[in-house]
Amino acid sequence: MAAKFILNPYAARWNAGKRQAAAEAALRNAGITFETVVSDGPGHCTQLASQAAQQGFDPIIAGGGDGTIGEIVNGILLAAPKKMPKLGILPLGTANDTVVNLGLPKDLDAAAVLIAAGNIRNIDVCQVNQRYFINNAGIGLEPYVTTIQQRMTAIKGIARYLLATLVAIGRNPKWHMKLQWDEGQYEGPCTLVSIGNSPLTGGVFYTVPHADPFDGKLSFVYGYLPTRLGILSVLPKTMKAAEGNYVEHPAVHEVHATRLRVHVQPGSPAHADGELISEDIQTLEYRIHPAKLPILLPG
To answer: Mean pLDDT in each 10-residue stretch from start to end of the chain (299 residues)?
Structure first.
């Protein structure tokens, strides 16, 4: 059956909509037979993906950024089709973290050729409460940054994420959290909990540096740094992919598990794949679904 191309025109602050013709041309030039549907607002990509999965479209191609991909993943899994469709990605977002983490091309023509090649690998899918995600999620400072950057309209690109991070650190919000995972627990003050299926988020931050989307593990980082200066001192280390990353700090801990339960006071913002799932939530349950979703990747 034909592919379904789901375009989120709002991605990259409406730039994705401006690139619709180029994206469709790339798919046609790669020899892909497809139908296009365009999202008309938040959550609509999930509905469109669910309908496409139920109707048997394969692959389902996400046109947008990390939030778009997250919505489409939710739509596919919520549809629970008899045959799971493959996920293809045309990168039309701002940071395109999922694309970078999976080694996918950012060029539309190259991305379309890759989709047409049909090379499949099954990726792990993470879940928080009733929401699925394939890149990352977070509680505390990280989604607090998201609440700030989503309100910024004059600044675009990666600079928006960086400025929002500095604003959030300046405000220095504080939480008390209780974390429970497979064979461990922590209770006390906590600056952030970052849950990663992959290492990179926000274009430059390796918040869970050893996360692997194919290892069947739910990887997360938690830590507490009480002062603005302390947080600022480790901020450059979050931008290091390997040696020298902030998880080497004695107050920061990286864990690989299969489940994580978090209770936070006061309520914290929480996000999944860059999209806020709440601005004030207290209890979250995370789990991993190993090799759940077929995705089109380089051979």
So the answer is: 94 93 98 98 97 97 97 96 95 95 98 98 98 97 90 77 90 97 97 97 93 98 96 95 96 98 98 94 98 96
Structure tokens at 117: 């090649």
Alpha-carbon span 130 to 66, nearest angstrom: 18
Question: Residue 31's Cα: distance from chain center in Å?
Answer: 29
Which structure tokens are listed for 147? 């609440």
Residues 136-289, CATH architecture: Sandwich (2.60)
- Euclidean distance between CA atoms 27 and 23, whole angstroms: 6
Tell me the domain boundaries of the chain.
3-118, 136-289
Say how far apart CA 129 and CA 115 lie, in whole Å. Answer: 31
CB neighbour class for 91 (10 Å; exposed up to 12, middle 13-18, buried from 19):
buried
CATH architecture of the domain covering 3-118 = 3-Layer(aba) Sandwich (3.40)
Cβ contact 35:5 at 8 Å: yes
